[in-house]
Amino acid sequence: MDAAEISVRWASAAEDLRGALTLREEVFCREQGVSRAEEIDGRDEHARHVVALEPSEQRVIGTLRLLVDGETAKIGRVAVERAWRGRGIASRMLELGLAGATVLRGTEGFGARSVVHSTSLLEMSTDLPIVIEIVDTEEQVKRLLPHLDEMVQEGMITMEYVVVILYRDGAAAADA
Fold it and tell me: Tag placement on the chain: N or C end, fewer CB within 10 Å?
C-alpha cells in the first residue's frame, strides 16, 4: 500500500488517543522493553497528539505526542507500527506536529579532512553539509544522542541552549 494514502492528522476523538496508546505500548513496551509505568506517564490527557491512520481500516499505525508547557513545546513518543516503518510516516507526522525542527542543506562546507564540498544551485550533491535543528528539553535531546552517534558516520553533533520567545501552532486561530 502506498504511504501517500495514509491519513496524518491531529487526533480528534477518544478513539484516536486509545489507538495511539495501544501502538505506543506495542512499540515502546513490548518491542523496546520500556516499562508501562514510564511510557504511560499521565501526561497524554494534556497533550496534543498526531495520528497516522491505515487507509482501509482507519486504524492508528503511527503516533506522535506534543506537550506544550508555557513557553516550552516538546515532541516525544513518536511511534510507527513495525509493518509500516520505512515509508516516511514519522516524517509526515513530524511535519504536522513538530514545533521546533529545521533541516538545512548547505551549498558548501568542509570537515575534519579540510576537503571542500560544494555545488552549483542547479545540482544538489549528497555529500553537502546538513544541519538538523531540534528544539526540545535537554533531557530529551540527551536521550537522542546515542541514536545520533550511531547514525552520524562523519560529521559533528552539537547542542545549544535557546530560549523560546514565542510559540504559536495556529490551531487556536483555526478553532476560533
Answer: C
pLDDT at 122: 46
- The H or E element that residue 15 is part of is helix 14-24
In contact, 49 and 65? CB cutoff 8 Å: yes
85: its cell numbers: 516503518
Give the up-direction half-sphere exposure of residue 164: CA atoms within 13 A in the CB hemisphere.
Answer: 17
The model's pTM is: 0.56
Residue ranges, the chain, pLDDT below 70: 1-4, 70-73, 96-133, 135-137, 140, 144, 147-148, 150-152, 167-176
CB within 8 A of 55, min separation 6: which ones? 1, 5, 6, 7
Q: Which of 124, 141, 38, 27 has the alpha carbon at shortest distance from 83? A: 27
Chain segment 57-94, per-residue pLDDT in tens: 789 999 998 887 765 667 778 899 999 988 888 888 87
